[in-house]
From TrEMBL:
Lineage: Bacteria, Bacillati, Mycoplasmatota, Mollicutes, Entomoplasmatales
SUPFAM superfamilies given in the database record: GntR ligand-binding domain-like, Winged helix' DNA-binding domain
PANTHER family xrefs: HTH-TYPE TRANSCRIPTIONAL REPRESSOR RSPR (PTHR43537:SF6), TRANSCRIPTIONAL REGULATOR, GNTR FAMILY (PTHR43537)
CDD domains: WHTH_GntR
Residue ranges constituting the HTH gntR-type domain according to the UniProt record: 12-79
Pfam families reported in the protein's UniProt record: FCD, GntR
Name this polypeptide is given: GntR family transcriptional regulator
Entry superkingdom: Bacteria
InterPro entries: GntR_C, TF_FadR/GntR_C, Tscrpt_reg_HTH_GntR, WH-like_DNA-bd_sf, WH_DNA-bd_sf
Keyword Signal: no
Listed GO MF terms: DNA binding; DNA-binding transcription factor activity
Keywords: DNA-binding, Transcription, Transcription regulation
Length: 229
């Protein structure tokens, strides 16, 4: 099993290093769903003991990225479509309320950061070598900042805890470069809604946003059948 290392994580303690590196490799599909995770092999590759690796695997299990099966071992979980659909429905309900609050009162100090994220994503799309994870990270940061702008960043953190399957489908979208222009246009539309206080447009906007995600799932399941439950 190959692990892509990241020198930016080298300052972390052993458990956090193992956790962040494994999560990064799982989300980037370096380690594919269904792969058996060998603690001994990881210990040798990462040059750390098995204890922090075992602790990291338990955290990843709570996030839905690892299945720990008695007498069999630890496996990268396959993508659970039902879990992904549940996650997007919860997020839709929460984001509708967040956007309504943002239309009434929004921290303007956050605004320039949101506009810069859109500019960075536009630049990424135009580049010959497309940085998948950078685009994905900017997308997450865009939404986190909207929650921050109404002083509810902790809710965003809670939503992230149930986003394992949803996130991996989103990353496949980015890898396959599906709907990237739609994502950018939705970000721009979201800012216009907040800027102009268009509360009456929020429900339809979120309905379209959810629909665009859900309609890609059958295509992905057909194209990548081995990574789904």
């Amino acid at each position: 099993m190959f692990i892509k290392k990241d020198k930016n994580l080298s300052s972390l303690n052993s458990r956090d290093y193992a956790y962040q590196l494994l999560k990064q490799n799982i989300l980037e599909f370096v380690i594919l769903p269904g792969t058996l995770i060998s603690e001994n092999e990881l210990s040798k590759q990462l040059n750390i003991s098995r204890t922090p690796i075992r602790e990291a695997l338990k955290v990843l299990q709570t996030e839905g990225l690892i299945d720990i099966l008695p007498q069999k071992g630890s496996f990268v979980s396959k993508i659970d479509i039902q879990q992904a659909e549940d996650g997007i429905l919860v997020r839709k309900a929460v984001e509708i309320e967040i956007l309504k609050q943002a239309c009434v009162k929004f921290d303007k100090k956050v605004w320039s950061h949101l506009e810069k994220i859109i500019q960075k994503q536009e630049k990424l799309i135009s580049q010959e070598i497309f940085d998948v994870m950078k685009f994905y990270e900017l997308d997450n940061e865009f939404h986190r900042l909207i929650f921050l702008g109404v002083n509810h960043e902790h809710i965003w953190t809670k939503l992230r805890e149930m986003a394992a399957s949803y996130d991996r489908i989103r990353i496949i979208e980015v890898i396959d470069q599906i709907n990237l222009d739609i994502v950018l246009n939705q970000h721009k539309e979201e800012l216009e809604i907040i800027k102009n206080g268009w509360v009456d447009k929020i429900d339809q906007f979120m309905q379209n946003h959810t629909h665009n995600f859900l309609k890609t799932i059958p295509y992905m399941r057909q194209k990548f059948p081995n990574i789904f439950k």
